[in-house]
C-alpha cells in the first residue's frame, strides 16, 4: 500500500509541475482557447492528456504528410479517436512535403515544418485560437542546441527552444523524454510509434540516436544541465539586446527607408565586431560580411556590400544601408494634363499656373519650378544613365550627372535611386530631388509656371 501511494504521488506531481510551469512562464490561462499540434506520438499524447486532466480548453490539429503510407493513415485515425475520447474538436489536413521540398530545394523535414506551422497559423486566425501548443521537451532543446552549434550559431541558437514565442507555446519543457515515457506508461496512455525515428539518415535522428548517448556517458543528466544553461543564455540575450537597442539609438539615424550608421561613434565601441553584427542583422548581413565591413572603416569610401534584402555602402562618415531595388525602372510618361504621375518608386505632384507679379521661387530640393513655355510634352521621368548631362542651376556649362552626384557625395547604393525628369526633346530638366537645369528655371520673362513636387510614399 505504501508503494502504491508513493507511485501515485510521483505521477500526480507531473500534473502539478505542468501547471506550475505554465503559471511560472505565464504561458496561457484556463480562459484561453488552445490549438494543440499532435502527431499521435508519445509526446503530443502526453500533452493532450495533461491538458485534459488539468481542465484546459483545447482542440487538436494533425498533419498527414503521407510519407509513411498506411502508417501515416493510421496516425490520423488514431488522433481522430483521441479527439473523440476527450470530446474536443480535431482538424486534420494532408500536406505534400515531398513536392514542397523539391520545389523550394529544401529538405523534407524543413518543408514539413514550414507547411505545418503555416497551417497552424491559418487555423489560429480562422477560428480565433490564442496559442498553438507543441510537445517539445528538454531532449528537443538539447538536440536543437547541438544542431545549431554544429551548423554555426549566435546567441539565439544557444538558448534553444523557448517556452513561449509569440503565438507558439511549449508547455512540456520542464520534462525529459524519459519522464514523459514514465508518465505515459503510468497513465496507461496509448500512442503511435514513428518508424522513421529509428533511422539515423536525418541529422536530428543522428544526434538523438548516436551522439547524445555518448554525451550522456559524460553527463547522465545532460538534459537538465543544458536546460539551466539555456535559461542563463536567454537572460544574457535579453540584456545584450537592450544594449544593442541603446547602441542603435546612439549611432544610427534614418531618413525615409535609408539607415545611416555614424562611423566615428561606431569606432569608439568595444567588441565592435559582435555589436555591429547585431546592428546589421535586421538587414540580413552575415558575420563574414560584418568582418569585411569593419575592415573598410579606415579605407576610402565606396565599398559596397549586398545582402538578400539590402545594400550597404561605406561612405565617408557613415555606413549607408538601403533596401535593394526590386521594382522595375520603366520610364514614367508625364502628359500635359496630368496633376499626378507615379509608379512604384516615384510620386510627382504637378501644378500649372500663371506667374504672379510677386512670385517667389521655392528653394526646396524636392520642388522644381519650371518655365512651362520651354516644355515639350510628354515629359519623361527615368533613372539617370552614364553619359547624362545637364546644366545645374547657377552654372553656365554642362556637367555630367555622374560628376554631379560625386560632388553631392551621394553614396554608391543611393545613386541607383536617382531619377531625372526629361523634356520631350530629351534634355534633362531636373535631377529629381536635387537640382533643376538652369535652362528651365523661372525667369523674369516666364509667364506660366510648371511646378513639380516630389512626394514621399
- Which structural class is indicated by helix and strand composition? alpha+beta
CATH topology of the largest domain: Rossmann fold
Low-confidence segments, given as residue ranges, are: 1-9
Task: Report the mean per-residue pLDDT as an integer.
Answer: 90
| Domain tally | 3
Q: Which architecture name of the largest domain does CATH use? A: 3-Layer(aba) Sandwich
Q: Supply the CATH class of the largest domain.
A: Alpha Beta
- Span between termini: 76 Å
Number of alpha- plus pi-helical segments: 15
Largest sheet: 6 strands, mixed
Q: Work out the strand percent.
A: 15-25%
Helix content: 40-55%
Output the CATH homologous superfamily of the largest domain.
Answer: HUPs
Shape: elongated
Give a quick set of tags describing it.
Rossmann fold; alpha+beta; 20% strand; 3 domains; 6-stranded mixed beta sheet; single chain; 22 strands; Phenylalanyl-tRNA Synthetase, Chain B, domain 3
Structure characterization notes:
With 457 residues, the protein is an alpha+beta fold. It folds into 3 domains: 13-232, Rossmann fold (3-Layer(aba) Sandwich); 256-323, no CATH class; 332-454, Phenylalanyl-trna Synthetase, Chain B, domain 3 (Phenylalanyl-tRNA Synthetase, Chain B, domain 3, 3-Layer(bba) Sandwich), CATH 3.50.40.10. Helices cover 41% and strands 20% of the residues. The strands form 5 sheets. Strands 3-2-1-4-6-5 form a 6-stranded mixed sheet, with helices on both faces. A hairpin with a 2-residue loop joins strand 7 and strand 8. Helix 6 crosses helix 9, helix 6 packs across helix 10 and helix 12 (272-280) packs across helix 13 (287-295). The N and C termini lie far apart (76 Å).
Amino acid at each position: 500500500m505504501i508503494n502504491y501511494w508513493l507511485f501515485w504521488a510521483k505521477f500526480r506531481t507531473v500534473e502539478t509541475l505542468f501547471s506550475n510551469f505554465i503559471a511560472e512562464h505565464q504561458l496561457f490561462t484556463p480562459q484561453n482557447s488552445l490549438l494543440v499540434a499532435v502527431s499521435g506520438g508519445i509526446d503530443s499524447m502526453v500533452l493532450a492528456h495533461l491538458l485534459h486532466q488539468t481542465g484546459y480548453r483545447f482542440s487538436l490539429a494533425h498533419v498527414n504528410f503521407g510519407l509513411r503510407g498506411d502508417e501515416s493513415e493510421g496516425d490520423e485515425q488514431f488522433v481522430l479517436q483521441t479527439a473523440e475520447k476527450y470530446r474536443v474538436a480535431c482538424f486534420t489536413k494532408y500536406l505534400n512535403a515531398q513536392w514542397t521540398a523539391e520545389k523550394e530545394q529544401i529538405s523534407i523535414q524543413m518543408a514539413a515544418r514550414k507547411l505545418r506551422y503555416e497551417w497552424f497559423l491559418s487555423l489560429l486566425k480562422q477560428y480565433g485560437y490564442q496559442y498553438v501548443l507543441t510537445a517539445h521537451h528538454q531532449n528537443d532543446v538539447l538536440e536543437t542546441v547541438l544542431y545549431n552549434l554544429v551548423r554555426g550559431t549566435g546567441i539565439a541558437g544557444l538558448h534553444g527552444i523557448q517556452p513561449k514565442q509569440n503565438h507558439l507555446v511549449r508547455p512540456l519543457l520542464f520534462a525529459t523524454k524519459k519522464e514523459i515515457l514514465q508518465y505515459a506508461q503510468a497513465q496507461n496512455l496509448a500512442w503511435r510509434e514513428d518508424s522513421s525515428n529509428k533511422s539515423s539518415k536525418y541529422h536530428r535522428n543522428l544526434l538523438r540516436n548516436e551522439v547524445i548517448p555518448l554525451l550522456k556517458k559524460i553527463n547522465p543528466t545532460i538534459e537538465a544541465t543544458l536546460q539551466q544553461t539555456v535559461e542563463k543564455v536567454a537572460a544574457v540575450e535579453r540584456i545584450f539586446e537592450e544594449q544593442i537597442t541603446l547602441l542603435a539609438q546612439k549611432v544610427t539615424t534614418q531618413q525615409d527607408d535609408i539607415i545611416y550608421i555614424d562611423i566615428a561613434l561606431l569606432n569608439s565601441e568595444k567588441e565592435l565586431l559582435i555589436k555591429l553584427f547585431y546592428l546589421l542583422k535586421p538587414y540580413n548581413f552575415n558575420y563574414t560580411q560584418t568582418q569585411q565591413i569593419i575592415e573598410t572603416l579606415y579605407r576610402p569610401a565606396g565599398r559596397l556590400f549586398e545582402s538578400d534584402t539590402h545594400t550597404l555602402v561605406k561612405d565617408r562618415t557613415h555606413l549607408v544601408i538601403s533596401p535593394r531595388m526590386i521594382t522595375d525602372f520603366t520610364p514614367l510618361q508625364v502628359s500635359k494634363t496630368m496633376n499626378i504621375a507615379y509608379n512604384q518608386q516615384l510620386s510627382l505632384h504637378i501644378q500649372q499656373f500663371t506667374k504672379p507679379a510677386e512670385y517667389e521661387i521655392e528653394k526646396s530640393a524636392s520642388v522644381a519650378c519650371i518655365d512651362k513655355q520651354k516644355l515639350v510634352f510628354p515629359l519623361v521621368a527615368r533613372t539617370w544613365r552614364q553619359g547624362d548631362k545637364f546644366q545645374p542651376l547657377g552654372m553656365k556649362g554642362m556637367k555630367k550627372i555622374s560628376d554631379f552626384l560625386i560632388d553631392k557625395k551621394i553614396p554608391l547604393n543611393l545613386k541607383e535611386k536617382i531619377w531625372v525628369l526629361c523634356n520631350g526633346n530629351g534634355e534633362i530638366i531636373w535631377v529629381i530631388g536635387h537640382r533643376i537645369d538652369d535652362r528651365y528655371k523661372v525667369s523674369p520673362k516666364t509667364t506660366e509656371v510648371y511646378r513639380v513636387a516630389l512626394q514621399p510614399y
